[in-house]
Structure formats: C-alpha cells, structure tokens
Amino acid sequence: MGLRRACLSLMASSAAAAAFFSPVAATADTVPGTLPESLSEAPQAFSTQAADSSPQGLQVIVNERGRISTSSDAAGLIGTTGSLTIDKPSGATVRRAVLLAASTGGRGPMQGEITLDGAPVALGHETASYIGSSNYWADVTSAVKAKLDTAPAGAVSFTLGESASGSLDGEILSVIFNDPNQGADRSVTFLFGATQTAGDNFTLQLSGPIDPLAPSTIAQMSLGISYGYQSDGIQQYSTVDVNGRRLTSSAGGEDDGQGSDGALITVGGHGDLPFNADAQLPPSGPRSDDELYDLKPFVRAGDTAINVTTANPSNDDNIFFAMFMTNPPVTDVITPGDPQLGPFKYVALGDSFSAGEGVEPFFEPNNKCHRSTQAYSTLVQVPGADATLQELSRNPDTGVAWGFQACSGAEARNLLNDGAGRYGDPLGQLELNRSADTGNANDLPVDADTDLVTVTIGGNDASFADIVTFCATTPNCQTARYQGKTLDQFQREARDRLAPQLSAIYARVHEQAPQARILVLGYPQLFPASAAEQNCAKLREQTVYVRASAAGRGAVVPVANIGFTNAEQNAMRRWTSELNQTIADRVNRDGSGYVEFVPVDAAFAGHEVCGNAGEWINGPTLATIASIRGRSPVANSQSFHPNAAGQADGYAAAVNERLGLPHF
C-alpha cells in the first residue's frame, strides 16, 4: 500500500461508535494530565466541526529514503515563549521539517497562534484525539532549512511562541537531514494522528530482510505523547509492544515539558538516548522512559516487518506522533486484516519495455503503442493487498485506480511535451488532461492523487533499436560510421543529451504528483556475457536471401549477412551499462528523496537471448521479406524485448520487491 493515503488507518471497529463530548475546564486541584472524572470512564473522541469526526490512528505523513538522519525536540510552555533544539550533523542540509502540536487534554481544539522564530505557523490537519484534545501538524521545511543549512554543526535552537499556552500541551519539531556522514541508505518515516487509548497496532514493512548484527542496521523509534504526567508517583503511562514483546510500560512522561496542564509533552530526540527501560517497571518519574527506543533487540535475522502495538491503560495519554529510522528502509505501513487498500492510484509511463512490446495480446485500441495485457504494470502488487493493482482497479469499491500510458517508441520528449505523444497518441504521457476519452481506456493523469509511478525511458533516445539493426547488418559496426560518427561517439553524445531530459522528467512527475513514490527502472542486458552463449545459432551471422524480382519470382539473391560478432555483443552490453549508469546518476543527483532507481540487469543475468538460465528476452526476428526487399533488413519490433517471463519475473518482480513484497 502507498505510504501517503493508502497506508491503512490504525482504527479499531469501536472508533466509529465513539461518543462526543464538550470540553470541560480542569479544576485547580486536578492532577496534571488527568481527565476530569466525567471524561475518563471510557475511550472517547472529542469532535469539532473542523476536526476529523473520528480519529484514525497514525498515518504516514513523511517517508524519506537515502543517506539521511533525523533530530527532534519537544517543548511544553507555561509562559508564552520557549525553545526547540535540533542537533545538526556536520555538513548536513535539511530535507524535510515538520512542526506538530497537541492541545491540552479535555479542552478541545487549540486556541491562539504558534510562532517559530517569530513567524506564525499555519497548523493544519486537525485530528481529534481520544482524550478530548486535538492534534495538528505543518510542513516548516522552508523556514527551518533557511536557518539550519547555514548554521554550524551542533545544537541549533528555535524560539517557540504560544499566544494561548494554556490551550496547548506543547509542540514537536522534527527534522530530516541529508547527511553525508551516513554510509548507507536508510529511511525516516513520520506518522501522525491519534491512537486509541484502548490500543492500536501497525506494521512496518521493510525493503528486505533485517540483520540485527550488521553494522549498517538501524531500527530506531521515537514517540510523541501529550498530556502525560508521571511526577510525584502518579501511575499515568502507555505501553508499547514490538513483535509481540513488551518494549516499555512507562511511556508518556512530561520530560520535554513541565508538570502542569498546558505544558505536558514528550518526544524521543534531543538530549535522549535510545535507551530501552525495563519493560515491566511502572513509571517512577518523567524520565522513566525517554520515548526513544532501539528496536533491534526485538527483531530476528531475516525479519521483513516490525509490528508495533500501543495502549494507554491509564486512559489519559495522547500518542500522536511516531518516528522510525530504519535500515533496511521502510516501504510501507499497514494494519493487518484491514480489507481495503485504497484509495490508491498507480500510473505506468515509459517506452516499449514498460509497454510490453513483444508480448501479445495488446490492449485495445491496438495502435503501435503495443500496450501488452501482460506488461509488468499489470502484475504490480503492493504489500497488504491480495491481488494486483490492475485486478483491484476493476472493482470500484477498492478505491484503486490503475493507469497505463507507456508507449512503444517513446522518447523522453514524449513524456515531457504536451501534445507530443507517440504512434497516434495525441497527448504527452504527463499531460494532466489525459483520460479514457483520449482513446486509451487505461489513461489516467499523473496528478496530486497519484501514489505510485513507474517508468522506463532513455533507450529510444540512445537509438538502441536502430543500432541493434545497424550492428546486425553491418560488418564490424564498432568501426563503421553511424550518422557520421562512431557508435561510441554517438552513444556518448546521446547520453549527454538525454541526461538533462531525465532530470526534467523526474522533476515534472514530482511536481504533478508530490506525494507519489517514483520508481525509475533500468534496462536489462540483451546479449549474454559468455562467448559460448554469444555464439548460439540465433545470434551468429547468417545470410538472408530474397527473390530478385519485385513479383517475388526469379533468382534468389543474398540481401545481407545478419548477425552479431562477439565484439559487437560486448559493445552493446557496455552501452547498456553506460545508459543505466546515466539514468541512475540522474536519479541520485536530481531526484534524491522522491525518485528511486530500480536496476534489473542482475535479475535478467543469464536470461538474455541464448542465456543459459532460460530466455527472458525475445531473440532477433526479421520483418516480413516483402517489407525489406531492396533495403537493409529490419528487425521486427518484438526483437530484443522482454518476453512474458521477462515482464513477470524480471520487471514486475523487481518492482514488487522494491515495494516490499518477497519474491519467490
């Protein structure tokens, strides 16, 4: 499921029946963080016109991946000003920053205004909690980045202001850094919402098996909790279980705030260590638990998921924020057993390798785009779903939408340029006015509702199909001139022209679908690696003959020798690797944080034409003799494209693995 909207809400069935009540002022002798007796008998939800009518657990609001790190701090104010401190790593720059806030328990929505370094913060996403308060968050990346990027490494403070501090228990500032000090990719995931005091649970899906002993492995969790009080022996607490084992029985102190309503908050972050308290001990003070946890002791080697269960037996804490920093990275957050995936929208873009050229039948209308009914996009399946996205999209009740714009022959310009489709397609693949009315029944625009985009692009910009034909019909094509250049020179110049167009495509997709996960797929090797495989009958030179006369009668004459030398095959393997490297470099340079490169050459290894593990690539097939008489033979468009196995076991498997599904 998608990390933005399709991650399933952590909502028990009783939530819909939660009662609503009016805010009740706390009396002078009320224990801080304790709801008035009339409100504490059972889990309840406070409702306002602006807030969600029922809390829906924690949902992903940010998921970043790369060489990154994070820092958080919270503050609960009795007066009108305070500070939030972020720890900046050396050489780091800000990628994302959010400010979160929670109103005081039992008092309804917040009042007044919050400022950060004197600038007002427009908090939104109001969510009712189960303790008569409301939770909020806002993206403050621009303001925080302007300060932190130019600040020296170390602790950097922001001035926090509240015009009506009694109505707010506090704020949390969480920052994600591009961190050059990190040696491996990891993910940082922020979840926001309102958990039920009676209990909620969710599962983190990881991109691969975890090894708790590996030096690069990290599994860290931070919780943000408001209206918690543990001073003077008060037994007010939340419990957390990880993979069925108790992590803590004392979460929810006020160690980032002060012992008074309107200042009760905590988050694992600045000044805290990932110290796991004795799991069975009740709280003895505000620092019984710093709400920053190391989850590695709770996972086993080979695990691909981490399950977290929270509960608040004292019925007066508000767990409204969670941060996870993990390697292997998080790919999804799901609730087991929830029957609905959507809403979720997936659009497949690109060229013939995404369209499924070479694998009939094709979707109607059967124009030269050749969109195959067995293309990899028809087989994409996200974690938590029991069917492919295409299958789910056939049932409107699932909320799943599946779009298929990929077109054989597409070049980078066919994605970028409005009104410049390919082969009878009147629209560019990224035009926002795409719909089924344009002639493709599976047309969907890439827009703000899009959760997942996949794309292959660049092969036609490098003229790979034409060069394969050129090498097949030209003795020693490496030294021959192609469009006045050697093929090495032609390929180098084509890649140089392509690179900025790739950056423009990634930026355009992200601009139109800012919350989408964008997977850029590489190209497989078409020719095998070993000389023995390269010398197979399909690839070695053979003579093609045609009848001399136009009527197809007369003497049989040779047209050309068709085939590939070992040197030519090795050259085309090198050009494929160089093209993949150009694509990967542009993803890493210009798409970091929102675009991921998914290589497929390793998956296809041994499955090339004549590959010893079984072919996933169609071999060379010539066009009909009549069409080539009198000129150089041309390859049928199906030649040197993935077959059904290549689409399924090569491309679809690579996408599904990246999305978090194991591949069997």
Automatic annotation (TrEMBL):
Signal peptide residue numbers: 1-28
Stretches assigned to the SGNH hydrolase-type esterase domain: 348-648
Disulfide pattern: 369-407, 471-477, 536-610
InterPro entries: SEST-like, SGNH_hydro, SGNH_hydro_sf
Any one GO biological process: triglyceride catabolic process
Pfam assignment, any one: Lipase_GDSL_2
Active site: 352 (nucleophile), 641
GO MF annotations, alphabetized: triacylglycerol lipase activity
Keywords recorded for this protein, A-Z: Disulfide bond, Hydrolase, Signal
Location of the region described as Disordered in the Swiss-Prot/TrEMBL record: 245-267
Annotated protein name in UniProt: GDSL-like Lipase/Acylhydrolase family protein
